[in-house]
Specification:
Elements: H1 4-23, E1 32-39, E2 49-55, E3 64-70, H2 84-92, E4 96-100, H3 110-127, E5 133-143, H4 145-157, H5 160-166, E6 175-181, H6 199-213, H7 228-232, E7 245-250, H8 256-269, E8 273-278, H9 290-293, H10 298-315
Parallel strand pairs: 3-4, 3-5, 5-6, 6-7, 7-8
Antiparallel strand pairs: 1-2, 2-4
Helix pairs in contact: 1-6
Length: about 325
């Protein structure tokens, strides 16, 4: 019997090795500084650390609009350090940025990931203002699996039902805007390793869902409350009153079907959003999360500046 969980683990290990080999050729961004690996729970778990990024000349005396970033990596790979050049570039544009690492699905379930993210958010709520974070103006953003976690966090903040099943309390975040880049959205059809209607595709998609549910499997309290279609349904507010969202994507994304699914759900619910989707013929090199992994590309700079412009408009 094929072990599809092992296939997922092996797939992301290959991604990790490939990214490490390519990383030496990527240019550094400049004009920023950071505080790194701050423990946000104090439990000595190596995943429970966060990074803070600021403009190079920031001394904490001026409050800067806040960007909170949730990293991607298929829920099975990565840390906040993975996107450091991108986060540094955002900080260099005049923002205070926080990103966190969190336990991956090898070590916990989706509830555990959410608990970790909320641990970092709680730390920022308690300590961010002292470091110059303007917590009245927040952009919440993430890419790929981090895009899923971004939308899930936004829904949890506005749903007592989701707070109950994920075991967290609302941080009452003043989220003015959301931005998701090449996001995952449909938890029932995560064809990250394999195509639809193939044994490998269906097997790894089922393995993903099983990993998210953990030991309780279909009896987990969050069963049926993981994808964007499911979480929109239990909001305490109208979807039209949720923080407006910007979707950045590319038709050459291997997971573009996930972006299409997200747009359909947002349209159906009346959730306000804008999109910047690069067409197949516009740039062949634009693949999954291009604007994160290569912040310096022309199309990436256009996309990332669009994100900050969107945020500024929503703050006003």
């Amino acid at each position: 019997m094929t072990d599809y969980r092992k296939q997922l683990f092996d797939f992301w290990e290959e991604v990790k090795e490939g990214n490490a080999a390519a990383d030496i050729y990527n240019p550094d961004s400049s004009g920023w500084k950071k505080e790194s690996h701050i423990p946000y729970l104090g439990d000595y778990v190596p995943w429970h650390v966060l990074n803070l990024y600021y403009p190079e000349d920031h001394d904490g005396s001026k409050k800067l609009k806040t960007v909170i970033y949730i990293h991607g990596g298929g829920w099975l790979y990565g840390t906040v350090d993975l996107s450091e050049r991108y986060l540094g570039w955002i900080a260099s544009q005049g923002y205070a940025v926080m990103g966190m690492s969190y336990r991956l699905l090898q070590y916990t379930d989706l509830k555990g990931l959410v608990e970790d993210i909320y641990g970092a958010l709680s730390w920022l709520k308690d300590h961010g203002r002292d470091r110059g974070f303007d917590l009245d103006n927040i952009l919440l953003t993430g890419d790929s699996a981090g895009g899923h976690l971004t939308n899930l966090t936004a829904c949890i903040e506005n749903s007592r039902k989701l707070q109950e099943v994920y075991g967290v309390s609302s941080q009452e975040l003043k989220i003015k805007a959301l931005c998701v880049c090449c996001p995952c959205a449909d938890i029932d059809h995560l064809y990250i390793n394999g195509e639809p209607d193939t044994e490998a595709g269906e097997g790894t998609a089922a393995a993903y869902k099983a990993l998210m549910l953990g030991e309780k499997e279909n009896k987990a309290a969050w069963y049926g409350l993981m994808g964007i279609d499911e979480t929109i349904a239990v909001l305490d507010t109208k979807a039209s009153d949720m923080p407006p969202m910007l979707l950045i994507g590319t038709e050459r994304d291997s997971l573009y079907a996930q972006s299409v699914f997200l747009m359909k759900q947002l349209d159906k619910a009346g959730w306000q959003y804008e999109k910047l989707i690069w067409g197949r013929d516009e740039a062949r090199h634009l693949q999954h999360v291009f604007n994160i992994s290569h912040w310096e590309w022309r199309e990436s700079l256009i996309s990332n500046k669009k994100m900050l412009e969107f945020f500024e408009r929503k703050c006003k």
